[in-house]
Specification:
Blueprint (H helix, E strand, L loop, with lengths): L1 H12 L3 H8 L8 H13 L3 E6 L7 H20 L4 E5 L10 H17 L4 E3 L7 H12 L5 E6 L5 H9 L5 E4 L14 H17 L4 E4 L3 H13 L7 E6 L4 H9 L4 E7 L3 H11 L1 H11 L4
Parallel strand pairs: 1-2, 1-8, 2-3, 3-4, 4-5, 5-6, 6-7, 7-8
Helix pairs in contact: 1-12, 2-11, 4-5, 5-6, 7-8, 8-9, 11-12
Length: 299
């Protein structure tokens, strides 16, 4: 299946932009904030929450970073204006982290402060390994003054368990995912079963320390293991939620929802959808496989 998925990725990257858009449209809300509102409302009607992200990262200068911040502020204003069951997700490099850490801190602080004023929340996404330490520094600094923010950790990174031990002491709100960026074997697990074991190990210590966890996975095995831990450790429903990408494993998403667990869907939108789509496909060929099977009804 891996060769099959990689073949699809190679093929998609050679296709014209409109064709890639056709492949990707169910995984991206659209280009405008109106599209994000529409998709979020559809999810909310089903009792599903959203985390909204304006696409675009690795900005080249402070002007672009400020523009990204302003678009994120528009998302927060939209959430309160339309009473959406949603929060905001941001990429640290989109806010200028690769340019100037202090500048990025001021940018994100503005968003977190604005979110607090409307009783909302900001999720700081994790990017590839060159930005891991800087992202944690940003999070820890903000956590000194704010509680309405959380961070992402990736189970395939060999450092993650040790990071969680430290972050637990801060009462961290997590999104725990497997990880999608292509990292060298020296710092990241490559074996599927090892990643799964590390995911459950991380989740268990988060639960045992009383932290809130966004259990972000499309892996049915991990969902079942999370169910098991929740039962064994008697974890209250107000201490976790499940999270998924828009358009991926909707069958599993609906089952979790029907089982009475809170679930949140990542809703990306913006004019940078093409770069996001091709990067997602390159970094996670399994998504390409889902697209192909959905397109040709291979389910």
């Amino acid at each position: 299946m891996s060769l099959f998925n990689n073949l699809i990725v190679s093929t998609v990257q050679l296709m014209p932009k409109p064709v890639v858009g056709f492949f990707s449209k169910r995984y991206i809300a659209g280009e405008s904030i109106d599209d994000a509102i529409r998709v979020t409302r559809e999810l909310n009607k089903q009792g599903i929450y959203a985390t909204i992200d304006v696409l675009g990262e690795s900005v080249k200068n402070k002007e672009e970073a400020i523009d990204s911040k302003n678009k994120a502020l528009e998302v927060l204003n939209t959430i309160i204006k339309f009473n959406l069951k949603a929060n905001l997700s941001i990429k640290p490099t989109q806010m200028g982290l690769a340019i100037d850490e202090d500048f990025a801190y001021d940018q994100v602080r503005t968003l977190v402060q604005n979110a607090r004023e409307i009783n909302s929340f900001v999720r700081i996404d994790m990017e590839d390994s060159p930005y891991t330490d800087a992202t944690f520094r940003l999070f820890r600094k903000l956590k000194q003054d704010y509680d309405n923010l959380g961070v992402v950790v990736q189970a395939y990174m060999k450092r993650t368990y040790d990071d969680v031990v430290v972050l637990n002491k801060l009462g961290t709100n997590y999104r725990l995912c497997k990880g999608i960026y292509i990292e060298p074997p020296a710092i990241a697990y490559k074996d599927k079963e090892t990643i799964r074991k590390n995911y459950i190990r991380d989740l268990e210590i988060m639960f045992k320390n009383g932290n809130y966890v966004g259990i972000a996975t499309h892996d049915e095995y991990l969902v079942k293991e999370a169910y098991r831990l929740i039962k064994v450790l008697n974890i209250s429903k107000d201490k976790f939620e499940f999270q998924m990408l828009l358009g991926v494993r909707e069958d599993l998403r609906n089952k979790i929802n029907e089982d009475g667990y809170k679930i949140r869907v990542y809703v990306p939108f913006g004019k940078d959808w093409y770069a996001y789509s091709t990067r997602r496909l390159k970094e996670n060929p399994q998504v390409a496989g889902h697209i192909f099977r959905d397109l040709f009804f291979f389910r």
